[in-house]
Amino acid sequence: MPSSSNHHILSGLTNNLKDSDTEETREWIESFEGLIETQGTERAQYIMRALLQHAGAKSVGVPMVTTTDYVNSIPVDQEPEFPGDEEVERRYRAYLRWNAAVMVHRAQRPEIGVGGHISSYAGVATLYEVGLNHFFRGPEHPGGGDQVFWQGHSAPGNYARAYLEGRLTEEQLDAFRQEKTKAPHGLSSYPHPRSMPDFWQFPTVSMGIGPLNAIYQAQFNRYLHNRGIKDTSDQHVWAFLGDGEMDEVESRGALQLAANDKLDNLTFVVNCNLQRLDGPVRGNGKIVQELEAFFRGAGWNVIKVLWGREWDQLLAKDRDGELVRIMNETLDGDYQTYKAESGGFIRDHFFGKSPATKELVADMSDDEIWELKRGAHDYHKVYAAYKAAMEHKGQPTVILAQGVKGYGLGSHFEARNATHQMKKLTLEDLKAFRDHLRIPVSDEQIEDDLYNAPYYHPGPDAPEIKYLLERRKELGGFVPDRPHRQQEITLPTDAAYKSAKKGSGKQMAATTMAFVRILKDLLREKDFGHRIVPIIPDEARTFGMDSFFPTAKIYNPNGQNYLSVDRELMLAYKESVQGVILHPGINEAGASAAFTAAGTSYATHGEPMVPVYIYYSMFGFQRTADEFWAAADQLTRGFLIGATAGRTTLTGEGLQHADGHSPILASTNPAVVHYDPAYGYEIAHIVRRGIEHMYGTRDEDHDVMYYLTVYNEPYQQPAEPEDVDVEGILKGIYLLKPAEKDGPRTQLLASGVAVPWALEAQRLLAEDWGVSADVWSVTSWVELRRDGLAAEKESFLNPGDGTRTPFVAQQLAGATGPIVASSDFSSDLPDMIRQFVPNDFASLGTDGFGFADTRQGARRFFHVDSHSMVVRALEMLAKRGEVDWRTPGEAIEKYRLHDVNAGTSGNAGGDA
After folding, report:
1. Separation in Å, CA 344 to CA 315, 372, 374
2. 133 is in an annotated binding site
3. Is 587 annotated as a binding residue?
4. Is 273 within any annotated ligand binding site?
5. Residue 648 region, left (φ>0) first, then alpha (ψ -120 to 50), else beta?
6. What is 494-545+581-716's CATH number?
7. Which CDD domains would you find in this protein's record (predicted)?
8. 736-895 placed in CATH 3.40.50.10240
């Protein structure tokens, strides 16, 4: 019987059932064993499946088999022959292990000490090498090449292989984690495409994002294929993950998508070394069994690779099932301990649990018991699993490979709780590791300088190096590798932006609708529209984008096989294999992953695509900022549209929906260019510039993401002025409406939905108080700040070259009087430019939590509305002596500024 601590993850098919005829049961089992002996496991597998299917048809209750015994999924008689030269591969695998460890160790020289990880690659080397020698197709492969998501902490192994391949030099290995001080030779600590854009494809060290992005990469590959943009039928996505990493919500949160889309172009390889960073993953349980049940329940094909070939004979002799029983019941914490002890310890504490199992190893020495490998370190077992995964159709596959963290590094490292943090080798460790791997390095070379143990390369003409390079040549080139083969594309014509520049006439329209109109026109562009990838979580109707359904259609690789409830309506919900819209459901994390896959297609597939991810503003940077950071690392390009933006504009929804801070969060991401436009014509110029920025020919950083905040409040959209300041729109500020009367002067700055409040304040100041105010539309507080900081830094580092004036100061030159700045975000946002302008400056902001109320009431509560702008301007003018000191108080009384029911800025309605 399984122990009480892990019975919930074992199937227990006969638990709680009485065996009414034990002799008959034994006869059935003997008959089944005879079937296996005479016809093999493949026939036995079919008979069992047929019986289970028939049992269900006869209403015989058979529980779902969520877990299998703790043995390999692929029977020995079904294992394919290993096609490689295992001895040659073993030799250079030893070189890889040595060089990876030495590289990290050398970086711990006292004057450097930059850290690193030795044990992670040591445990995963075989899993990598089987793939690199026999499965992972490079970018020059006729089928287009595979995408491989490597484990982040195992990056030293990738560098060690690139060294043997001749892609990296010793000088570069010695620059590990020293990207600037040893530039241009520095190597990033983990897979970072932004740091090494010619080498890495996918950033994976932020745990959980790799598995999620791998799923959506596989989906996007199919999306490109089904839309007829690129044939991706011969491309496969591999994701190498840790068993501890699988506890991240993102790691498991999209498994159903892979199953529903039948993504048999996707394989997860979970390195089950049973350890997290600090200790066991499931010390009191069995993580492999748990993951098997979880993935199987989610609809995945599961392959377990738990034991090396040395176990095969023992299992074959296990006639009464005692060894399998002990394997099933042994806890992960004990399995970890066994590999940190000795063969004698394993004999006593594992095999010694039963007289039958103790007898199984009676003729084996302690050393032979110690050499019983786990499956993740056996080339034959891993090859069989990879081949089976590639041949399996209709489901994604997960391979659960049991290994040992720190494998081969010796007793100080193997399976120790602290092994993840260990980055130095003692003299004894180095010598023992060298002996274990048979590296031809002398004691004198190691002893001469503890932190200068030599790398080993047998030379380019060595047979193992020739073999290694030949394998990669046959598979289509080196991996990892990030090719630069972006094709030129035709950019949208002027026609795509005309409608937004016309304004809304006498009608009112929200900026969300202004953007959606532009998106529609972009999709219609003959030579460009097919490159747009709209990504919408389950809120298309909120954003007024249900009109896209009948024409663009929603992507579903299975088509639409049901009768739609709204099929008679003009805006019916329509799914299609060729659908354009990626609709991940209520799943912002998945939408962000889809955005990343589409936004890097220019590099991954050589097909530039422009993802447009539109989402509830609050659920963007607050919810998935780490994914956007990884997207920036992956050099993603595209548009992020934070719709229903603002803390007071989304009426009625309340605290968790009222966004007053996303632009501030976004400003911390250097790859994000944020705009807060007020009008459709501003959006048109920003979108046009964004597409040109990403895919134009200008010499600039093209790897940017444009983030626009748009609102659901309708107001009149003016036509574009004839002399509009386009440079000001794109750089962040332009004069929207100068004062129309003389008087004490002030400057009103506003962004987004606050611009109409500023225009109203301008009128009130003139009519009620004789004050002259200029109104400026600030399209980007963030870009103005970045420009200002850049100007300050230039002056700081080049004191003799004069001082560059920040753009905001240039624009406001000659604009006299105090500045009052307002937006529908917290005061931190307009405060970003305070230091760059000489004027007295006041920021009005929606500081604090949002709440459900009317727009007018909420804006009065936060004191960001037109009347608050008037009073704040009067107070600053009074302080300067330019208006009577009693005037601000009179204005407060006149406008009932302390009464939340007296606000008038804004209107009701506007779902989109």
Report:
1. 20, 12, 17
2. no
3. no
4. yes
5. alpha
6. 3.40.50.970
7. TPP_E1_EcPDC_like
8. no
